[in-house]
Amino acid sequence: MTVTKTDVLVVGAGPAGAAAATWAARAGRDVVLADAAVFPRDKTCGDGLTPRAIAELERLGLGEWVRAHTVNFGLRAHGFGQVLQLPWPGGNLPTYGSAVSRMELDDHLRTHALKAGAQGVDGARAVDVRRSGQQVDGVIFKTAEGVIEIECERLIVADGVRSPLGKVLGREWHRDTAYGVAARSYVASELHDDPWISSHLELRDEAGELLSGYGWIFPLGNGKVNLGVGTLATAKRPAALKMRDLMAHYGHLRQDDFKLTGELELPTSALLPMGGAVSNVAGANWALIGDAAACVNPLNGEGIDYGMETGRMVVDLLDTDLAATWPAYLREHYGEAFSIARRLAGIATVPEVVATLGPPGMRTRWLMVLALRWMGNFITDADRDAAARLWRFAGRNSTGIGMHEPYKLQLVVEMVGLPRMLLAAFLSALTRPFGIKGVFYRVCGKGVGGIDGFYPDSDFDVYHELAVINPPQPDRLCDELARKTGIPVVLMDANDFQRDQLGKSADFPLTDAQIQDAMRDNPSGQGRELTPFILIRPLKDPSDG
Q: Taking the model in full, what pTM does it have?
């Protein structure tokens, strides 16, 4: 079929593009779904469908179809001498996951979009665009028959991790943050119908060196499993590994446990920009979604769920200025979680960190449950009462009043959001046995460290039920106090672990280094003293008489 003009042009017919085309067609729009491949086609992927992905498939009306495939109930985590079975958490999401090969899944999703009313164009590789100002008026494709152009009112780019059309539009991948390097294969297994997906968090190379990554075995229910390995890397710490050799080594190690037989089939590998680590994702009438927008979980490489989610969400914004609305929408829905996960993934690129934190983490079931929720982004509204569950391990610090009060934790949730607090509590619990203190506050930020209040034993009655937080404009406050009192003022948030200078008046006579030196031993006290004011006066030199 020759198509020369459409309302909505979707480039890329994977899960993200097919979902977008389906939702746009259901909304009554004229839709063209174009892809460089001819379907069915293969794609490098672990093939896992998390409960978030299942929720999107159910929204599309494909719940019965996916349940006809293998169904799994959670993750079996292996590593450091431990094996833990971690069920999917449920809540507002389905209680099951699945795994379907991308060759079958993508073909079915594309067919579903065509049945919804989208027109399909196969074997058309997008190579350029025609613009008028900030708007895209058409996309240039190369096909077996020659070059064609499809004009469009709106353009959705879902052409995968490398996103060649995204590059034409100005997409930039920032490799200074963590990215994934993965390899995947299929192999026959007697455990092809195992109701648990398996991840090996202690991934080692042939020399026995611990790597920053994990191996996986996802049962497909068709006589085979998806077997693969993935590692984390950054521009500073690139993954100098032969991934297919590593995958073969991993398969050999798992052969007996998972009753694998035969050779690894269809081995492929890929790079994965993750955690939204790309810029220029939208223009006036165009937007990048799914893998093209790096909507991939930095902690496990999962992207199918985000792809289908962004495909659904972008359709609701097609009549807006996408240059403004789409980046803001991505920040609202994924920004904080991706930002924190990128930082954590960046830390995990250091093998020493994995070696230090892996063993105690695997020995502590509730920590791994929390990690599963974080890795799968299963934090929902049902978790908002987090304070009641987390106070037990947020704990008191060794010398004074800490984050053990539920009211204080709930205030932290309101200030920084539940995902950041969960990560802070998780890392604090992991690092405390090694004598590393203050992690909770460093992850949450200075604002949380400045909370004073909810102290039942305080000598100040007002602190029993109320709290004081850091002022939003500390320098202005210091200037105002100095003007009213005639005394230069510096505002500090100090405890026995660290001393944060929040602000100071313009006429304060000491340098920042001198202020830190004066506050080195925390003269305000850490316990019941709670001294609110400290006077700093110069000492008279005895030699002056």
A: 0.72
